[in-house]
Amino acid sequence: MQIRENVSLKALNTFGLDAKARYFCSLHKMGGLRSVMQWAQEHPDLPVMFLGGGSNMLFVADFPGLVVQVRLLDKEILGQDDNYFYVRAAAGENWHDFVRWTIDQNMAGLENLSLIPGTVGAAPMQNIGAYGVEVKDCIYEVQAIDWRTAEIRDFSVEECRFSYRDSFFKSVEPGRWLIVTVVFRLPRKPQWKTAYAGVREQLEGKTLNARLISDAIINIRQSKLPDPAVIGNAGSFFKNPMIPQAKWETLQAQFPGIPGWPQGDEVKLSAGWLIDQCGWKGKRDGDAGTFEKHALVLVNHGNATGAQIWDFAYAIVTSVQAKFGVTLEPEPWVVK
User: Which of 26, 45, 70 is the last residue of a domain?
Assistant: First the structure.
């Protein structure tokens, strides 16, 4: 496996930021990890980062160590039981292409997650979600490797410790485990989730199936969100904040139109609504800005640096905190 020096990552992150990796290689086969491990032993003071589709990260600066682009490809149907189909996919598979492939195999369950950028390996890392579905709902197990010791481990759903846009791999032991494959458990008798505004209207009066729902999700996402190939972005930049019930009641009294969704003892707010209310939709500072159709999406209008986008994001956080007393957290991994 060839390790190159001073490689631009501009084409490998959806913000289109011209950050550079001091060292770079592509991992096409698991055997290549031996070279990564050897490099790490020879450069103990430099970090190693594994890169999927680059769709959920913000490079604020160049990366001083080794960036390993994960290109592991494979997918197969493992079998079925009375209730589920079981499908395995390698970490480097394109997520949206994989979703559509499952639909081609007459399987349902992932249709609401159509057109989310990134790879299969990044999906459980972030516990991606959209339109009432999180990927954890369809995962059976995750196989990962401790790239420093070559230990291979199968993680059950419980061991993955999934939560809202979070997982064991992202927060508990970040950087230790390289996700290799994911086994999905897809229902033979799907329960369609179409209650979200926009989805419900597109599907009204139609006989539901996975492809029809997927097509509707694609249409909605394309109408609301910018194409990274046209304008750099990482999708939703902030998590929808969770607040205590008491805080929610206080905000309701101050802002009667504020949307919220009960989540046990807490209430989930709309980060996009909060940002919009602070006047940020369509704003820009140089080439860093928010998308004109969706305040939750930060964009690179052409030549913004990661630092400029991060400063712009911080200004939004400060503004929302001042108006609502709510702290926004970024969804992307911020590489400083």
Answer: 70
Q: Would the pTM of this model clear 0.85, i.e. be above it?
A: yes
The active-site residue, picked from 165, 167, 185, 214, is: 165
Residue of 238, 237, 243, 239 whose CA lies nearest to 255: 243
What CATH code is carried by the domain that includes residue 110?
3.30.465.10
- Partner residues linked to 224 by β-bridges: none
* Residue owning tokens 């989930």: 268
| pLDDT digits 0-9 by tens, 194-243 | 998 789 999 999 999 999 999 999 999 999 899 998 999 999 999 999 99
Catalytic, 319? Answer no
Cα angle: 110, vertex 200, 268; to 5 degrees:
75
- Going by C-alpha positions, the residue among 97, 43, 335 that lies closest to residue 218 is 97
User: Is 42 an active-site residue?
Assistant: no
Annotation marks residue 165 as catalytic = yes
Q: Do 100 and 216 lie in a common domain?
A: yes
